[in-house]
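Q: Structure for this?
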Amino acid sequence: MSDQGQFSSEGKKLRIVFTGIVISLVFLAYLGQLFVMQVVNTGKFSQDATSFSQRSVSVPAKRGEIFDRSHKAPLVLNSDSFQVNFNPAEISKEMIPLILSRLAVLLKIPFTEVEKRVPTNLYTSYQAIELKKAVDYGTVRKIAENLSDFAGVTWESNPIRNYRDIGSLAHVVGYVGNITQDELQVLYNQGYGLRSVVGKSGIEKRFDLVLRGKEGTRFRTVDVNGRNVGTSVKEEIIPESGKDIVLTINQDIQLLAEKSLGKRMGSVVVLQPSTGEVLAMVSYPYFDPNKFYTDEANQEYLRLQTDVTFPFLNRTIQSTYPPGSTFKVIMTTAILSDKVLDPNRTFVCTGTVEVGDRIFKCNKLTGHGVVNLSRALAQSCNIYYYTAGLEYLGIDRIDDYSKRFGLGQITGIDLPGEIAGLVPTPKWKERSLNYPWLGGDTVNTSIGQGYLQVSPIQMANAVAMVSNSGKVFRPHLVKGIVDSVTGELQESVPEVLYESTVTPEVWTQVQNDMRGVISEGTAAVVITTKSVKIAGKTGTAEDGSKGSSNHSWFVAYGPWDEPDLSKRIVVVVQVEKSNTWEWWAPKAADLIFHGIFSNQTYEQVIQELRPWYMSGL
Amino acid sequence: MSNERSKSLLTIDPLLAFAVLGLTTIGILFILSSGVNSNGILITNEYLKQLLWALVGVFFLISFSYLNYNLLRDLSFWIYLFFLILLVLTLLFGKVVNGAKAWIGIWGLGGQPSEFSKIATILFLGRFLANKRAEVQNWRVFLQAFLIIAIPMVLILRQPDTGTTLVFIPIFLLMIFMAGGKVRHVLYFAFIGILSVILALIPFVESIIYNDTNGIGSLLLDTRIILVVAFSCTLIISLAIFGYRKYKQRIYYWITYIFSVLLISLITAYLLRDVLKDYQVMRFIVFLDPNVDPKGSGWNLIQSMTAIGSGGLTGKGFLLGTQSHYRFLPMQSTDFIFSILGEEWGFLGAVLVFGFFLLLLFRMLYIMNAIKDSYGVLVIAGFVGMFFTHVLINVGMTIGIMPVTGIPLYFLSYGGSSLLAGSLAIGITMNIYYRRFRF
């Protein structure tokens, strides 16, 4: 053995030991890193692993249905509707065009459209592609029965809102639609998402949180290509169905009111004054929300939005008008309660009166002759109220009583978008018109003209106040919410909106005077029903502009002397001046009262009553 | 002598054989696991192929443990030359696999010459260093030795296979070190390598991770500044060499040492930036911050670390890994075999694999100490360098300590070439040990 082939053993050993140490240190460091990853931080990595492979799909909750007060057949329900999807990667590329052409025929969409949705570069995609929404059950059944011809086709239930024969209840019930960016900004914190369906108006909007329920979530595990792993769904958060809502609406009365108003721009409110329950609420023109779920949704929506008659407007709460002579009910109450004027004191109406340099006319140009308070209300004598308002009450008292009757403020009805109207005050006029309050303004206000603006629901409340001798309940449309678990109806409790300090004697006098309007006054000719004795007030209101047409009002309750307050009903009809002048409001009310109290439909009412004012129509 | 020989009738070293067998078995198990898809169906027969390769490997191992390694030494230059030619042929006629032209063969039979060229280079470099042992501290010998590894490195880099190319450097350094080379020579080389890479990548790191295009890195992109610095360095070095010649003081030696490291690094870094491909830069960038490109370049690293980390102490269980079976983990049977093991067998599985590798490496170190033939020592040192570097880089990249470089983990990763090359190396080691008393 030559020395040349060998190392000195000392140096060699040292270098081997050194190498061994370096190797050991590296392994130790790696073990340290592995320990940190797999023992110390394993939770974080496990979470990451789960998030890589888990996809959550939201499961829509069943939206609550809406019933009328009988709680029998729903006014609004959910109809089966399906979305048909196509999963290209599940079938061989050669087969895809064939299946797509079959689908185009079945779903009645042009083949070019299908090709656009499923282009060849997506043939390997595991992502389901939406082909058509709102496919009916029958079509989906055809696919399901011939699944071998429709490989790769899937569908998901996507129920749509069915408003059935909603008619004039469209304003009350409202409709739903996909959430918009602006709505999402506001509602994001309440659990709404990008794909939420949300109520757009009416009860659907106001009670969206009650109706919508809670979306469920289905988790599925996917591989790196997004393909489902395994067949079973791993975890699921069951969706919570929305709660059903029972309205205070009586569908028979609603239909009666709808037909009694007919095709006249205006509105009707039927109220139960003892509770504030709205029995009917009609606003004409109305819209058909069912059209929003068809293929022509956009055109229909555009048409309605540009319609000059504003069909989206719920005129009972979103329109205000001068109340005209119906305001004299409030004036009468003020005069009696504040005792500024002896109700028996008489004035002579000559047909005109001069205030400042203006001449104000009475509605009867030849004059009513000698009138006291009762006769003034019955005959709707303007001269009496001009004098009483200007010389005895004054604008401050008039404003005070207007507010006590709830005018100039929203009633807080459970519908979105209510407006307050206006009770003009001298201060308001100076501030907004920069012009001082004049005597003529007080005169105008005294007969419900001028700047005064009220909504039909406010007038219904005012009449309810008379009927209840000073107490008003908040008008509402939701009778109760159905507990989704027990099925029990949780009724809403009537809420007192305001209570007046006016004495019962005054109320009795107001009620008597309002009865006088019907029995011997202006409405005596048109109120032909014998089934109920009502008390009310007519009104015609000029809307500033001179012209032959006027707003027509009729506000009333009945039976006028029924001691059981819960049997009384308030009816307010408002017909806009754009209609050919036919003074329709009291006539519609006549039909409605007769229908309600003789329990008849509109057709039966017409047949039995054969009102004189319908003969020419 | 005859007495001693009778102790080991078998050429096989039981400890090395145990380590190799253990690792190969685990490898086959996880190649099987990696072939199971998300629905629990086995979709490849890679594990069967690997089993076949393992049997061929055992045959190689036993054959080479019998064959007198002195024959290999005598033929080492020709073997070395043969594989250089094969590498050139691969570049000309090879097949592209995973973006690198690394595979050559006919009738479906063939392999990756780069794997075997490592062994051929070790055999030849061992002989060269054993012969020049006395002069190994000489600069000229050092550079000659470097030339021996540089030729295959350049050829493999052309494929391009950066990972395998890099493996040559630790092999070279460890063999020089064991041959008695000066530590400062080894370190000189190491410093240049590290500094070049850092200087080359600083501008990319700044612009991609920190969105800063006006930092220090921008200075490195300015050719004028580079030229000024290079010229200054050259001047200093010239003066220092002159000073060293004249006064023979050590200070001049170190000045030359330090500034030449700087000069060479600057130049290589400058050249490197032109050679580096975008994906190579990105691999380094995502190593520093995988979230720069989580769906692209950072994907492999993020998925691998998630797989291993989520494995926990005891793992999710064999065939039960989600990262692997849902295919989030890329190249599970080859480069990322350690990740699927880490996911399904957890920390304890990783410890087991580390144990086998440590047994293998320390047994080889023990053998190096036990034998007297310097050629044998140097060859085994080369093998130790090779095995160790593969573990260092492959496992390092799966746990985020090393940038992602596609090199296999010996005995575990799927692939005939690396399994056979590994078996070959162990067979030769056993042979050297077996013949430690006979010359």
